Amino acid sequence: MRKFIIKRLVISVFILFFVGLIIYAIMRFLPTSYIEMVARQKSMQPNSKSFDEWMKQLSVTYGMDKGIFLGYFQWLGNAFRGQFGDSWFWTVPVTEKFHETVWLSFVMGLISMFFELIIAIPLGVVAATKQYSKTDYTISILSFITISFPTFFFASLLKLVFSIKLGWFDLYGVVGRYYEHLSSWGQFWDKAQHLFLPITCLVVLSIGSLMRYTRTNMLEVLNADYIRTARSKGLSEGRVIYHHAFRNTLIPLVTIVGGSLPGLFAGALITETLFKIPGIGYTSYQAMVAGDIPFSMFYMVFLAILTLAGNLISDILYAVVDPRVRVS
To answer: Domain 98-321, CATH 1.10.3720.10 — does that match?
Structure first.
């Protein structure tokens, strides 16, 4: 296992190098640019230099006068020293803006994933064990509905019902107008109230696919020969399902859980935008639209690292949930 992990880490370094190069090239070819916006604003000031002169000066200032390969290696050298530069759009260090916005999205993603797992997996198992029953049809219809809902429609529906019609929750934001005057416990509940609808939106829209995935894999396991053998030995149905069958169903589910690691830090762009939540998803979108290369590069490479780490964690967990898995 140690050799396997070291080998995967070495391969991941090479993959990350080329992924970073591709991301940097895409950033350089974005149709919008913060430099162009600033140059255009400055050129419109009285007695100012022309747009081309400002573009040339700002390109030198921000290192955009170099080619893609030279620019990428310069960014890579700075990244190794922990220097990711300042955000062009927010004019603060990239890491500071990232730290300011990512943890809110992380908390939302972690809570939503927790409820997704404890709701979707049991329902998928129940649907598989009661195949073609009313329970199975009900769960299947529910999963199809949640899969089919567009995010913007369901989020707007939640706001219409619970914020406008019933008045239980605020429409936007993370805190209320009297947040500063509340006690510590009151501030906690104020944030919880504001995040309830966004998290509900994330949970409902994500459980459908996991329910279907769990049901499909559980049905495949239940039809295996060793399950029939376990039943023929007189084992209880509960032990057959939850001890023998469910453990093997965990193997493909580990792939989903490991692959969801980047999603905890990626944020939910549409949900955060509709509820006006200043998370990393909405922040990265603003950076991309503005052509903020330093922030976008840091964010995209960070997600690439998490994706590679998630795949490695999935491979390691295979051996945990299934002793038959051995790495030679």
So the answer is: yes
